[in-house]
Structure formats: structure tokens, C-alpha cells
Write a structure and sequence with these properties.
Number of strands: 0
Helix content: over 70%
Strand content: under 5%
Largest sheet: none
Number of helices: 2
Distance between the termini: 70 Å
Shape: rod-shaped
Radius of gyration: 23 Å
Oligomer: single chain
Length: 86
């Protein structure tokens, strides 16, 4: 068992990734018969976890940018609406 300290909002994502990895590990171990496979795959899993976290951060940043662009467009529409004489 490997214990990791992760933010609570990422815990379930990491658990699901661990379950998927374990299934693949068992399949690969049966096919290849490698004795050190668990060790190698643990290192790979940690690297993939870091990549997944980076991907999630990028998605969050993208969502903030989309929201910000929408707010800016709304602001300018209101400015134009208020500046045009009725």
C-alpha cells in the first residue's frame, strides 16, 4: 500500500486512478511474469498522478479564463448600452 497526501477534492480521482492502475498491473503481471513490475509501475503511477494533477489545474485555469472573458464582454456591452443615447 502506498499512502499519499492529497487535497480532499482530488482524493476520489486518485482512488479511481489507483483502482484502474491496479487492474492493469495485474493483467500485465500475468502476461509478462516480471518480478519487479510492481516497483516499476509504482514509479509510473506517481508520474501519471502528477500529470493528472497538472491537467486538472490547466482545466481550472481555462475555466477561469472563459468566465473572465465572458464577464469582460458583458461589462463592455453594458458600457456601450449606457453610452448610446436613447
Amino acid at each position: 500500500m502506498l499512502r499519499l497526501n492529497v487535497p480532499a477534492e482530488q482524493e476520489e480521482i486518485l482512488r479511481q486512478a489507483a483502482r484502474n492502475l491496479d487492474l492493469r498491473r495485474l493483467e500485465m503481471k500475468e502476461r509478462t511474469g516480471l518480478l519487479e513490475l510492481d516497483r516499476v509501475l509504482s514509479i509510473v503511477a506517481l508520474n501519471l498522478s502528477g500529470l493528472t494533477q497538472e491537467k486538472n489545474k490547466n482545466a481550472q485555469i481555462e475555466n477561469v479564463c472563459i468566465y473572465t472573458n465572458s464577464a469582460i464582454r458583458s461589462f463592455f456591452r453594458e458600457c456601450v448600452r449606457w453610452s448610446v443615447p436613447s
